[in-house]
Amino acid sequence: MFQYFPTNYVWSLSTMIALTHGGNVGEVDAMCAPIRDAAAAGDDPGTEAFYAAWKAGGDRLVALADQDLARGHRLSAGEKLGRAALYYGIAERMQAHGFEHRLAMYRRSLELFQTSRELTRENCTRVEIPCMGRHLSGLYVRAEGLQPGQRAPLVVIMNGLDSTKEMLQKSVMGTMFARRGLSALFVDQPGTGEALRLHGMPARHDTEVWAAPIVDWLQAHAEVDPQRIGALGVSLGGYYCPRAVAFEPRFACGAVWGANHDWRAVQQARLKREGENPVPHYWKHVQWVFGAQDMDAFLAKAEHMHLDGVLDRIRVPFLVTHGENDRQIPLKYAHQTFEQLVNSPKKDLIIFDQTTGGVEHSSLDNPANAGNLIADWLAEVLGGRVD
User: Fold this and answer.
1) 192 and 331 within one domain
2) What's the predicted TM-score (pTM) here?
3) Does residue 328 lie within any of the structural domains?
4) Boundaries of domain holding 51
5) 238-265: per-residue pLDDT in tens?
6) Is there a single domain that holds both residue 287 and residue 372?
7) Smallest Cα–Cα separation from 189: which of 217, 167, 211?
8) What residues contact residue 57 under an 8 Å CB cut-off, 6+ apart?
9) Which of 207, 306, 312, 372 is deepest in the core (most CB within 10 A)?
């Protein structure tokens, strides 16, 4: 993986997320160059300097977009606001829970993403799905070429620990499904995005509790084929997705972009400083995500986060993928997930290596080839297009 900050994996990971999710390399360099020394101090110190630098980069783009709008150049303004929203989202993602500007920055990022979609006339619509007395927010991307009255297969994309629906929609997944005749739903499930930040819905191990209302909503959608709904989990979604498919039989297939078979064991390894963390202030972050008051409460919740004794319930096609150099989640967990899919009628395992690219966690180093392989598999299983 390209490490802009050679001694700081966590800061470099956020930089790569920006570069592979719609960011501009010149803009990213301008934001990161002044904070190289701060990065050398470690993951947690200096994150406020990171915030200030990335916020300033977003502010510059907002000012330029205002000039575009004054000239009537809506498309140009929309593109700039989309990148500003991404940079604001990265800045927010890196801060500890309780950072005073965090919620305001998140709301501003949401606002700019929405304005950008409207100005650029993007094939992406915000939706709200009733769930547990509240709602989950999602981004619906319509399959290309869908005619009035037609129904398309659809993939539900589930976030990881620290991603959001906007972040994933701005990745290669924002277009690769639609081009293959598949619609997509990027969703902020409990513990992520709006569900966590705006509605106080923490993560939970029994993902079927929120997956079932999503399927209910999709099966009633006029543009969705109710028999061809697949699921894709990214990063910690590599736990959420298999669990959801195991206990919600209406999913027609499942796939993981990074297998997360035993997240409880990963926590024990991280306590021993084994492997890399995805965000700074990691232990404060996971306590927030899971609604835990302290470390003991979090670790008790994490004990449920494994797939042993679960995967034999899956009786639909399933794809397991993993980067061979994943420094967050060991490769062995991909093999464990694959081996336990004993009742899947079609199970496939793809390890991304130096030939394919995408060897790091969820292929954040190079998602293009890996993403296309996953999209092709899902299109073949769900009846989309691969030509």
Assistant:
1) yes
2) 0.96
3) yes
4) 9-118
5) 999 999 999 999 999 999 999 999 999 9
6) yes
7) 211
8) 27, 28, 30, 31, 84, 87
9) 207
